[in-house]
Amino acid sequence: MFYDTTSFKEKLAESRDQRTHALVVLTPSESKRLIAKGVLALPEVRGVLRKGLFVVSRGVTPSYIAEELLNTTLSKENCAAGIIADGRLAVTVPEGRLGPWVFRDGKLAEVSAETALKEFTATDVSIKGANAIDPMGNAGVLVQSDSGGTIGAIWPLLSSRGSYLVQPVSLERLIPSVIEASSKCGNRLFKRTMGAMVGFIPIVNSLVVTEIQALAALTGVSATHVASGGIGGSEGCVILALEGSENTVTRAYRLVESIKGEPPVPAPALVPAFAGV
Prior knowledge:
By secondary structure, the protein is an alpha+beta fold. It has a domain at 31-214: Rossmann fold (3-Layer(aba) Sandwich), CATH 3.40.50. It has eight helices and 14 strands. It has helices spanning 28-40, 43-50, 60-70, 113-118, 149-161, 178-183, 211-219, 246-259, and strands at residues 20-26, 53-56, 82-85, 88-91, 101-104, 107-108, 125-127, 132-133, 139-143, 164-168, 199-203, 207-209, 222-228, 238-244. The model has no long low-confidence stretch (mean pLDDT 96).
C-alpha cells in the first residue's frame, strides 16, 4: 500500500485557482535520491534510527538510503544481485557486491542482516526495493532464486511480527496490476527470456514510497503523476504536477532543483551467463 502521507500534506485551497502550480521532471537517478530522502523523513524510520534495528537490503534504490546514512558515495551498480542492465535481466558478479547494511540505534552495526532480522520487533524497519508497483500500491519483486531471494526470506518474518517493510520505488516502475503480473511469471515457466529466468512475488502489505510520498513527507506538497519517459538520457523520467501554497510549492520545486544532475548509475559487471556474452 502507498504510505499514507495525509498527516504531512498541506491542506489545499478549495479553488484550483487559489493554489500555486508547478511541473517538475525527475530522471531515474534523481527520483532515487529524492525517494531516499523521503524514506528517511518518515516517523517510523526516524524513530528506529534513534532506537531500534534498521536493515537496508541490497538494491540500487536502497543503496541511496545507505549513502544518505553513511554520508558517503557507494558504487551503486554493485549494490544489487539481480539487476536489469544492458537490456537484459541479469545478475551481478558476486565478488563485487555491496550490502546489505544493518543500523542499530542509527549506527552501522557489524552484524549480518539475517541475524538482525531474527531480533526484529514490531517497531523495527526493513528496506527492500521493488521492480513494479500498481495504482493500488501493491509492489512486485522479480526473483531468480527458487527460494524467493531476499524478499522470500524476509517478507514472512516481517509480516508475522508486524514489523515495517518499506519499499522505495519510482513511478517509473508503474504497471497496471501487480497481481495479474505475478500470475504470468515463474522461473520455470518461460521457454525463452532475455537474460535470467525470473519469477514475480507480489507484496500487498508493505509501505510503498514513491516520488509522490517522498515530496509530501519532505515538503507537504501535493503531487500528481502526469507523464513519463523521454530520450537522450531522459528515458524513464517521471513528470509530476505540484500544487499547494506558494511557499510549499516553492520549497518542493527547490528541493527537486537541488538534486538535479544526480548522475546515472552505470552498468555493473555481470555474470556472463546472463549478460548475453
